[in-house]
Amino acid sequence: MRLNLPSFLRRRGLPKELLESKEAKIMHISDTPDNIYPFILNLIEKSRPEYIIHTGDLVDNIKLERKPELKERYAERVKELLDILENSGAEVYIVPGNEDSEEVLKKLVRKARIVKPGEVVKVDEVKLALAHDPSQLNPPKDVDFILYGHNFRNIKHGLNGLLNVNFILLGSKKVVRVKYPDGTNFERGYKLMRGL
Q1: Average pLDDT over the chain, rounded to whole?
Q2: MF terms per GO, please (predicted)?
Q3: What is the DSSP string of 42-82?
Q4: 20 to 30 A from 96, CA-CA: which of 18, 57, 83, 161?
Q5: Is residue 183 over pLDDT 50?
Q6: pLDDT score of 86
């Protein structure tokens, strides 16, 4: 049976094993500019994750750390993303990033769990250390995965949600990566990135 995928998912070559897997899965995203929210919604609809973990900067094109006067606009956009995540049927975890307002998140979150940077959570039998910035991590040795975002740095045993959408198949602990749409880094504010 051939799935009728949106063209951007066909071009991306959404992995067959992700679409056909019967295993419960985690979807990990980070540093999401608002122009990719339709991509996130379509990816959720196609992959049907049981868990979604966002490791911060929910509206990464609005830099609240430098422009706090944009808080109202940030709140409008973050509400749109929360509607997508919280209405997905998945259990949602959010680690606030440096460009997020915890005050706004606490006011708008209905079902998601807000997680402190560096916290370890257990999903099924898989232990995850979560942070926005990898420098916030000091995980115990027995964690299965380290999930983070914030910059292009890779750390040992870590999955960087800024580089890819990471799916963890919980039964096999296999990781399946999906690329973000072209132009995502530009929308994040990385105008001079080359070779990525």
Answers
A1: 88
A2: hydrolase activity
A3: HHHHHH--SEEEE-S-TTTTS-TTT-GGGHHHHHHHHHHHH
A4: 18
A5: yes
A6: 96
Residue 154 lies in a domain: yes
Is 134 in contact with 148 (CB distance < 8 Å)? yes
pTM: 0.88
CATH label of the domain that carries residue 86: 3.60.21.10
Range of the domain at 60: 24-180
Encoded tokens for 92: 């949602």
Q: What percent of the chain has pLDDT over 90?
A: 67
**54's tokens:** 């966002």
Number of alpha helices (DSSP H) and beta strands (DSSP E) in the chain = 6, 10
The crossing angle, in degrees rounded to 10, of helices 37-47 and 71-86 is: 10
Q: Is residue 70 part of a domain?
A: yes
Distance between CA atoms of 72 and 104, rounded to whole angstroms? 9
Q: Is residue 102 part of a domain?
A: yes
Q: Are 71 and 91 in contact, with CB atoms under 8 Å apart?
A: no
Strands 25-29 and 165-169: antiparallel
Q: Rounded distance, CA 166 to CA 161, Å?
A: 6
In a domain, 18, yes or no: no
Number of structural domains in the chain: 1
